[in-house]
Amino acid sequence: MNCQQANELLIEYLDGRLDADRRAQVESHLATCVACRERVAEFRALSALLEEWQPEGPSPAFDTRLAERIESSTASWRPAWLQPAYLAVVAAVVLIVVGLMLWSRPGIEQRSAVAVKTTPAAPQANVQAREPQSELSQEERIQLLENLAVLENAQTLEDLDVLSEMGPPKAKKKL
Amino acid sequence: MAQTDAELMLRVKAGDAASFAVLLERYRNPLIHFLNRMVQDPAMAEELAQEVFLRVYKARRRYVPDARFTTWLFKIATNLALNAVRDTRVERGTSSSLEEVEPGAVARLRDPPRSAEREMIEQERVRRIREAVTALPEKQRVAVILHKYHDMDYAQIAQILNCSTSALRSLLFRAYETLRERLRALVEAEERI
Question: Which residues of chain A have a CB within 8 Å of the CB of B28?
Fold first, then answer.
């Protein structure tokens, strides 16, 4: 082992992170090289010197401030009415209301009645029942689609934030 | 038995705020120390640490334990710190954010008490250490701080710096060589102790 090869391993040697084989190689080189021995001694002294630099810790208000920031950030991030719990309740109410409206429509009753009877007038009555139902379904479909768009936008906003934090998926291999 | 960082983070992901508090308790101080050494400004370091934890919290739903939590945490911190240092340099138009010791400050203190004198000497030593580390190129500075003060292994530091472990080995050696030269007087005094 020459000086250059030894130098590459000196820091790990001082850290005690070399395996037995490589440690023996470094020690064998140090036994014959005064310059590298001096460098090791100076690196040890440098390491002790660097210990003197102890920076300040956090302020006592750190956790409180962080909690406030998280709260305000998540609040501005997604309005309260878009919280999952609210959305679930809203969705349930919408479904119930739509269901009740559809059920209580006269056309539905007519269609049910017509479906039971087998009179010649049945086809006409059935057409009359379907027309208002078709108009309602379209309204509801639009409303639902609008709600879906809001939900998707909220999720997309959230994903954008998360994706920006995650960074590139793979680290580069080289400098 | 203490839970691992990944286990805690998965709980945070599932909505457990208490697990986030455990992670905060575990890494608040190391993170602030790291950022303080990077930006040399306690107020800015605290602000950046808040931002790091905020980002971790916001990203909780996307968390996948495919790397060590500390690698992710310190990678966010490193990027924020380097950006802050660059911005500060541009604003101040200088290459260093360190305050200078006022010339003649020592001379004005007539016969200071020994403890005060000793404190001044220690402050001066620390100031020189800080300056020497701060003057290192960005990647070397990050590598030295993570290696020396956070006891991270080479693989982890290499991941944070987006380099190979062999490149990191050279990077660290060059950094410590530079510090050895710049702090030679202090190093030699330390050797005599």
Answer: 58, 62-63
